[in-house]
Amino acid sequence: MITAAVLTLSDKGARGARQDTSGPAIEEMLKGIGVEVIDYAILPDDKETIKVKLLEYCRRVDLILTTGGTGLGPRDVTPEATIEIIDKEIPGIAEAMRAEGMKKTTRSMLSRAVTGMRGRTLIINLPGSPKAVRENLETILEVIPHAIEKIKGDPSECAST
């Protein structure tokens, strides 16, 4: 069983001025591959607050999916918070999301999403919009269980025969 936490980063969402629909979309999609979401939070776009929550989650779950804060706005700091706490970056996942997104909109190239691991936890930044969350997560969903197996030390070969 893979355990996960979903973290929505939004000043308006944290104040209750906007309903979060991206976080629930992530949870719904994760259930489809047997991942259990055991924690969910909405935080403001504050780098230090995000880092503290990411570190807390890394002690408790296999997977953290963030939504929001990956754009070009002055308060978009999710990638910076993620970079400061990961041990290793896994650029291929974010590259795959951007590449697939480019098939739908050139604005996908503006995403600053980061993916990496801290200890035995996989962290993936997703965009903030529910549509973009679904599109991005759909692109990478099938690789998540394998990535987590590898992060946890699975010694089997990755190559298919």
Provide an overview of this structure:
- This protein is α/β, with parallel strands linked by helices.
- It has one domain (2-151): Molybdenum Cofactor Biosythetic Enzyme, Chain A (3-Layer(aba) Sandwich), CATH 3.40.980.
- It contains 7 helices and 6 strands, in the order E-H-H-E-H-E-H-E-H-E-E-H-H.
- It has helices at 11-15, 22-31, 47-58, 78-85, 91-102, 130-140, 144-151; strands at residues 2-9, 35-43, 63-67, 88-89, 115-118, 121-126.
- A 6-stranded mixed sheet has the order 2-1-3-6-5-4, sandwiched between helices.
- Strand 5 (115-118) and strand 6 (121-126) form a beta hairpin.
- Helix 2 (22-31) packs parallel to helix 6 (130-140) and helix 5 packs across helix 6 (130-140).
- The radius of gyration is 15 Å and the shape is globular.
- The model has no long low-confidence stretch (mean pLDDT 96).
